[in-house]
Amino acid sequence: MKVAVGSPGTWSGLLLRTGQCAFAGTSIGVMVSTLGFSNYTAFCYLIASMGLQVLWSFGLACLDAYALKIKRDLHNPVLVSLFVVGDWVTATLSLAAACSSAGVIVLFARDVHFCTTIPHFSCGRFEISIVFAFVTWLLISMSSLVTFWLLASI
Amino acid sequence: MKVAVGSPGTWSGLLLRTGQCAFAGTSIGVMVSTLGFSNYTAFCYLIASMGLQVLWSFGLACLDAYALKIKRDLHNPVLVSLFVVGDWVTATLSLAAACSSAGVIVLFARDVHFCTTIPHFSCGRFEISIVFAFVTWLLISMSSLVTFWLLASI
Fold first, then answer.
1. Is A111's Cβ below 8 Å from some Cβ in B?
2. Using CA atoms, how far apart are residues B40 and B36, in angstroms rounded to an integer?
3. What does pTM read for this prediction?
């Protein structure tokens, strides 16, 4: 099995996982600090999905750090299969959450013009949280592609 | 390169592509026949994305049929790379369209109760179209995984 950039147990892999945690955490932070988010199912789902992403990426970041510390190779078929399944599930859920929230915010901004007609409606903060969720998805999709590539090239 | 179920130039591949075309076409048909869909950006985006999916899957279905007829092997690295890129792009766009429309319909059904309070609002038809879009995404994601696996196992 080749060692690819971003693969488990490497510095680039650790960096990717840390980035996923940071962006998902920021997305949650911005969303929960916005008044009225809990009235919308899509925004609650975004928080749940980003929460799962933080847990998964934090766990794998710890594993990467441990593997780097004890110089252990994580490119084992069983472990890589586990990473592939987890990465694909969390990546799909993250994209679904980001897109469903984006669908709702586009409805508010363009279709019913809530963002301009209701001044206390925090469209900007919702949009920032969704952008962070999309960045998280980009990073987790990179990890997913790398782990799937690793598994396929056994 | 191994011949996997659903790979380009096989009967199972042709069946998958035909299924993608059929479900994407039905999703478009149900959506455009529903009154008021054009007032919502997410539903228009669903039609655009499913339209792209129909074009892509129809093109590949024709290629599969041609390859089966003349018994030509399509497992060529350049062709498979092209299939991988096209499949991944259309799969991501299909999931994004289905999820953004699902976000909007969940808002209408659960958060603002449009489906019960406004009798002429065709929630059911929108939901059917979205379900067909999700089925299309499932089928195109299968094709994507198979082509990516083929490319990685060169």
1. yes
2. 8
3. 0.92
Tokens of A93: 């859920």
Closest CA to A137 of A43, A53, A56: A53
Angle, alpha carbons A63-A99-A141 (nearest 5°): 30
CA dihedral B87, B88, B94, B98 (to 10 degrees): 140
Give the SS3 label for residue A7. coil
Residues in chain B within 8 Å Cβ distance of A148: 148, 152
What is the count of structural domains for chain B? 1
Q: Is residue B122 part of a domain?
A: yes
**What would the two tokens of residue A113 be?**
């013009």
Joined together, the tokens standing for residue A61 give: 């970041």
H or E segment to which residue B3 belongs: none
Helix (H), strand (E) counts: chain A: 5, 0
| Alpha carbon of B149: minimum distance to chain A alpha carbons (Å) | 6
**Residues A29, A102, A107, CA angle at the centre, nearest 5°?**
125
Residue B25 CA to residue B55 CA, distance in Å, equals: 10
Which residue range forms the structural domain that includes residue B142?
11-152
ipTM of predicted complex:
0.89
Tens-digit pLDDT profile for residues A70-122: 988 888 889 999 999 999 999 999 999 999 999 999 999 999 998 888 888 88
**Is B5 a domain residue?**
no
User: Does residue A117 sit within a domain?
Assistant: yes
- In this structure, is residue B53 part of a structural domain? yes
Give contacts of B39 with chain A, Cβ < 8 Å: 111
